[in-house]
Amino acid sequence: MAKKKTPENHGKLITKKELADIKRLVKEGTPSVEIAKKVGRTLGSLRKIAFDNTISLRVKKAAKKTAKKAAKKTAKKAK
């Protein structure tokens, strides 16, 4: 059985810019899986970072509504 490869950012501290990006994406209502991909971290590390910095990854109702509106606009433009 092959040994799993560790991520290249394993053990590296998070930068202020990355933390600001995470906060911005959470505020926009981006799902945590997508935030993790955009920041280049695993979902587990994103959750740990959020916990340590008291950031809620839960999508707020207002953010859900704006995300739905944006999806409708892009769907209309595609037609």
UniProtKB/TrEMBL annotation:
The organism's place on the tree of life at top rank: Bacteria
Protein name: Uncharacterized protein
